[in-house]
Write a structure and sequence with these properties.
The structure holds 2 protein chains of 2 kinds. Chain A is mainly alpha-helical. Chain A has a single domain, classed as Sodium/glucose cotransporter. Chain A has 22 helices and no strands. Chain A has helices at 4-28, 33-38, 45-56, 60-72, 75-85, 88-104, 109-117, 120-152, 159-207, 211-221, 236-247, 249-252, 254-257, 266-297, 307-312, 319-353, 361-385, 388-401, 405-413, 419-439, 448-467, 477-487. The N and C termini of chain A lie far apart (53 Å). By secondary structure, chain B is mostly helical. Chain B has 2 helices and no strands. Chain B is elongated. Classes of the chains: A mainly alpha, B mainly alpha. At the A-B interface, α5, α6, α11, α14 and α22 of A face α1 and α2 of B.
Chain lengths: 491, 69
């Protein structure tokens, strides 16, 4: 076990550094909505890339993916790399998101899609669906913090204390200065996560006798874990059920796609993608190697999500490295949480509260701040309650958010898509997702769930669009940005 | 009458086609060809190469962008 006092000391240092960054970011803010929610659309490639990476590669990596590797072996690597391949969507969609956001001043992806179809209800339904599936996901980040801190201290830090510290940090960083403080703290925290992950896996492999011995032992003692379907978890069906919805993460998750609005220019966009690629590939390998190391150093765990706490307290990892990795995982959870809170705040402020020429920037920022606090309090409360319905919705989030994908693709590639089609697709798909998972009891490991949701939302989007007419106020993104895309030589 | 869609830039179809094949290979090769054989590092090595190939394709996709048109 690690002494709680040591962990509190490290967290206090980390909090002080983050607070200093957030206050510095607050001084740079000018008070406009664009500045608060998008950092003035002037964020450079490195900060944007690290912020994107910290948001997308959450505590999931070194807690859940490690646990999936421990339980099922190498299939976890394939699953995460299919997700990684989803970054290819950025090659096609990042220039489009950026160009239309610049041209029409969009703050949120939902606002963008609503304007494209000429109907604010499209934005509101998309924001509502995101709320339903993202809030429980926030709860799991909170629960992850609790699991980790109480696990490595043998209960010395309680779930309440862990959740309270996570909530306080996420709230402060998001509320004080909006995107600028979130992006700057994300960038700093992602470096902590990256370096601590590399060091930890290096020490774990060293403790196992070096790379050669580590691989030999894996082949000799855990041969099935190097195969698919492996010891049982990674059947082809499970692999597809998890990989398919996660592949579309870059489009379906607004807290990630909104990052495409913050970039200064095309050069920053390219640099952002390169940073995410490098970070994503390496942290994926680290998480999977960490899972295999846990399998050798702490065999026989019944609860595989405890693999990371067990490995950290196994004695193989020096305490200072363990402390750094705990900080890295805490950082990843907080950065995901504050990014979601910020985006949800922006969606409520823009899609529900704003009225044309009537709602001041200050009021939209205040509304967003209130929503952010509520989101984080919601996540904290339900993490402490450990409510089953929240766990079910969180597991469902990737499949549920798939319903946003057809109208987003249609916004840029299908002029015939209509507001009615977009509404029908999202509502029909979301209802089906909830019905299948929560009433029929279809597991998130069953490919029936994501493929049915995707098929239903796509069919409704196309079918209802063909039966209805585009609204006169709908925007024609394809025509309006065609010339700019050609000038930038983007696909 | 909406304006006709401009033709996709040269290379777009090829890039998209290779990307689709690559992703399909990322599933079919481990599950269809390599899975179920003697325990070894074949699948891990394949997925490592797959990850690098995906990164290479994405790099190729963004390298052609012109920053200041």
């Amino acid at each position: 076990m690690i002494a709680p006092g040591l962990i509190w000391g490290v967290i206090a240092t980390f909090a002080a550094l983050g607070i200093a960054i957030a206050l510095r970011a607050a001084r740079a803010n000018t008070g406009t909505v664009g500045d608060y929610y998008l950092g003035g659309r002037a964020i450079g490639g490195m900060v944007a890339g690290l912020s994107y990476a910290a948001t997308t590669y959450s505590a999931f990596m070194l807690v859940v993916l490690t646990g999936l590797t421990y339980r099922g072996g190498i299939g976890a690597l394939g699953f995460e790399l299919i997700y990684f391949a989803g970054l290819a969507l950025l090659v096609v969609f990042a220039p489009r998101f950026w160009l239309v956001a610049r041209r029409w001043g969009f703050i949120t992806p939902t606002e963008m899609v609503g304007a494209r179809y000429g109907d604010r209800r499209v934005a509101q339904v998309m924001a509502g669906v995101s709320l339903v599936f993202l809030l429980p996901y926030c709860t799991t980040q909170m629960a992850g913090i609790g699991l980790l801190l109480s696990g490595v201290t043998g209960g010395g830090i309680s779930l309440f204390q862990a959740v309270a510290i996570g909530a306080a940090l996420a709230m402060f960083w998001a509320v004080v200065a909006g995107l600028r403080s979130v992006a700057w703290t994300d960038a700093a925290l992602s470096v902590v996560m990256f370096i601590s992950g590399l060091l930890a896996v290096g020490f774990a492999i060293h403790a196992l006798g070096g790379w050669g011995t580590f691989v030999e032992t894996a082949q000799r003692d855990h041969g099935p874990w190097l195969d698919v379907p492996g010891p049982g978890l990674w059947s082809l069906g499970t692999f597809l059920a998890l990989s398919f919805p996660w592949f579309f993460f870059a489009l379906s998750n607004p807290q990630v796609s909104q990052r495409l609005f913050i970039l200064r220019d095309f050069a920053a966009m390219r640099r952002m993608i390169l940073w995410v690629l490098g970070f994503g590939l390496i942290i994926t390998l680290v998480a999977v190697l960490w899972g295999f190391a846990a399998l050798q150093l702490t065999p026989g765990l019944e609860n595989t999500s405890m693999a990371t706490p067990a490995l950290l307290t196994s004695g193989a990892i020096p305490v200072w490295v363990a402390l750094l990795l705990i900080l890295g995982i805490l950082s990843a959870a907080v950065s995901t949480l504050d990014s979601i809170a910020l985006t949800v705040g922006a969606m409520v402020a823009r899609d529900f509260i704003r009225r044309e020429r009537q709602t001041s920037d200050a009021r939209q920022i205040m509304a967003g701040r209130v929503v952010m606090v509520l989101v984080i309090l919601f996540a904290s409360y339900f993490a402490l309650q450990q409510a089953q319905i929240v766990d079910q919705l969180a597991a469902l989030s990737a499949a549920g958010l798939l319903v946003a994908v057809p109208p987003i693709i249609g916004a840029f590639f299908w002029r015939r898509g209509t507001a009615a089609g977009a509404l029908a697709g999202m509502l029909g798909g979301a209802v089906l997702a909830v019905w299948l998972a929560m009433i029929q009891g279809v597991s998130v490991f069953d490919p029936t769930l994501p493929f049915s949701v995707a098929a239903m939302s796509t069919a409704l989007f196309i079918g209802v669009s063909l039966l209805t007419r585009p609204r006169p106020e709908a925007l024609d993104f394809q025509t309006e940005i065609a010339e700019a895309l050609a000038r930038h030589r983007a696909f | 009458m909406p304006a006709p869609s401009p033709k996709p830039p040269r290379g777009a179809g090829l890039w998209l086609g290779v990307m689709v094949l690559l992703i399909l290979a990322g599933i079919i090769v481990p599950y269809g060809l390599l899975g179920g054989s003697e325990p070894g590092l074949g699948i891990a090595a394949f997925w490592l190469v797959f990850g690098l190939a995906v990164a290479g394709m994405i790099l190729a996709g963004v390298a052609r962008w012109r920053d200041k048109p």
